[in-house]
Amino acid sequence: MPAWLMPALALVMSASLTHAWIAHARRRNVxxxxxxxxxxEVPTPRGGGIGPVVxxxxxxxxxxxxxxxxxxxxxxxxxIALALVASISFVDDHRPLSIRLRLGMHLLAAAMIAxxxxxxxxxxxxxxxxxxxxxxxxxxxxxxxHNFMDGSDAxxxxxxxxxxxxxxxxxxxxxxxxxxxxxxxxALAMLAFLPFNWPRARVFLGDVGSISLGLLxxxxxxxxxxxxxxxxxxxxxxxxxxMIDALATLAGRMRRTRHWLxxxxxxxxxxxxxxxxxxxRVVVAxxxxxxxxxxxxxVWLDVSERSPQREFAVTATVYALGLGVWCAARGALRRSxxxxxxx
Length: 343
Description:
With 343 residues, this protein is an all-alpha fold. It is built from 13 helices and two strands; from the N terminus they run αββαααααααααααα.
């Protein structure tokens, strides 16, 4: 099978399924209605993430059927975990489920990915427990933090497109054609979805999209680590755009209130929107961080000799710089808000 065929099919399937879902959601009234903490002004179909997620899942399945090198435990675990998370999230988009049930499924999916990664990398038995717990925590956090960041048109879709495209380039550079095809297909699936989600969005990702994409970011990063296309530090840097905003916001809410898990409007992107920034301008700002900070850091890590010390130093520098930018931006936005209120 030509290497370009599956990515091309993912592009077409994602666009077709998303278009069909918009019509279905309108008929069945699967809509996000405007409210105080939301940023949209008109009822909009939700759950459109089913389009790119199904396209990516079919590519995962197809690779294992037609490409012997892709018949690995890690790819199989990724497919099953994606099916579990997408299914429970799809149901939740239609009728709310309990937090315990959703979190239990997230942990189960993360445990499958962690177990497959440990088996694939041949980690020493003495480090199995620590590595399993780290991957379990990071994968579960990725699912939920990406869900937290899905509140402005095209923000999560553009970030997922960036991460998958970067992983595809790294896999190509390091000679891993099977995962390169998978990452490229995922990037094209998100590219096909983006016009439907671009401001003003005609459809939202919904939990089926945002949580599934969080899982895929974690799982694909682990696949790239297995193929030595990227290191642990590079994988954390690649997702720093969302991780910094989500973690800093979460830490601030934990410090200020006992109800830190309740819906809120404290993320930096939400502050920017409330201060008059358009959704498109917010996307440009977040992708600007990727272009100016993340890409140079990833390139430098890729061309230099890989070592744990260098990976840690670069990751710590990027996250410290990001936290400084986040704090400065939040402070400026708060001062502007207070000045406007006094006026």
